[in-house]
Amino acid sequence: MTFYFGTNVKMHHTPTESKTFVTSLQQHACPSDVQRFYIPPFTSLGGLADETHASDIWIGAQNMHQADAGEFTGEIAAPMLTALNVDMVLLGHAERRQLFGETDQLLAQKITTALRHGLRPLLCVGENAAQRDAGEQVSVIREQLNTALMHAGNGHAILLAYEPVWAIGESGRPATVDDVLQPLRFIRDWLDSRFGEVHVPLLYGGSVNPNNCGGYAAIDGVDGVFVGRAARTPEGFYTTLTAAYASWKNNR
Ligand code: PGA
Q1: Between the N and C ends of the chain, which has fewer C-beta atoms within 10 Å?
Q2: Do the beta carbons of residue 23 and residue 54 sit within 8 Å?
Q3: Residue 52 predicted with pLDDT over 90
Q4: Cα 204 to chain center, whole Å?
Q5: Which of 93, 95, 102, 127 is catalytic?
Q6: How far apart are the first and last CA of the chain?
Q7: Could you write out the DSSP letters of every residue in 56-71?
């Protein structure tokens, strides 16, 4: 079994800051059953290719267009990412869905493209506050999974993050373990019944920090945590990773 731990730094980190960040991660010893990943802005990806390709830290992009090339000003295609030795691509983050109108139909296309190019898609799903208050958590997530993963093949190379929208970012409320048990159980069962033999890693994200990460990592069926603000510095990354991994390990 592998424990997954990574951060999406959103619109933070210049190329120089990304290099410093990754160099610092490389200097910390990491247990062999931990897979770390770092998802910087596009502009940092080129500068990381050489250093990280030989190391055990996956580098990811924060988004990608579904076409391989074309007249799409301002967009980035999968072959451009693989040319930089990028390992994974984040798809369907709540901010992409909310602020940039990404739909599950679009994400299904992006996942197909990512898989065809050998990029590991990290798909985010999760309900917003109104949907939660209306008791629609599970039905919203089911619809997201059914649609976004409709062309996901046998599930190989896919990662899933459950990130309730109401728990993300500075205005978010960190979820209690009780808040997320049922949706995580639902997603774990959905993935297991859809993909069978292939174990799709399930991560939890949304205001994860060194104090609360252990609670999420201990939940049965959870394979890792996905962190924003708390892991934006190397120190924060390591403190949170250490606490989360210890809890995951103790509960397996
Ligand atoms: P946060 O971000 O940890 O800062 O809430 C999480 C995310 O957006 O994935």
Answers
A1: N
A2: no
A3: no
A4: 9
A5: 93
A6: 9
A7: SEEEEES---SSSSSS
pTM given for the model: 0.97
Q: Are 47 and 85 in contact (CB under 8 A)?
A: no
Residue 225, Ramachandran bin (φ over 0: left; ψ between -120 and 50: alpha; else beta): beta
CA distance 239 to 242: 5
28 given a catalytic annotation: no
Residue 95 CA: nearest ligand 1 atom is 8
Q: Under a CB-based contact definition with an 8 Å cutoff, are residues 26 and 58 in contact? A: no
Give the integer Cα–Cα distance in Å for 39 and 64. Answer: 13
Structure tokens at 131: 């949907």
What is the whole-number distance in angstroms between the Cα of residue 250 and the centre of ligand 1? Answer: 25
Determine whether 163 is an active site residue: yes
Question: What confidence tens digit (pLDDT) does each residue in 134-149 have?
Answer: 999 999 999 999 999 9
Atom number of ligand 1 nearest to Cα 168: 5
C-beta of residue 10 within 8 angstroms of C-beta of residue 228: yes
Tell which one of 37, 62, 227, 241 to mutate to probe ligand 1, the residue whose CB is within 8 A of the most ligand atoms: 227
* Tokens 């579904």, residue located: 66
Q: What is the pLDDT of residues 220-240, one digit of tens each?
A: 999 999 999 999 999 999 999
| Three-state DSSP class for residue 42 | helix
- Pick the residue whose CA is nearest to atom 2 on ligand 1: 228
Token pair listed for 247: 């809890």
Q: What type of residue sits at position 252?
A: R
Pocket of ligand 1 (CB under 6 A): 8, 163, 168-169, 172, 205-208, 226-230
Residue 125: predicted pLDDT: 98
Query: How many angstroms is it from 208 CA to the middle of ligand 1?
Result: 7
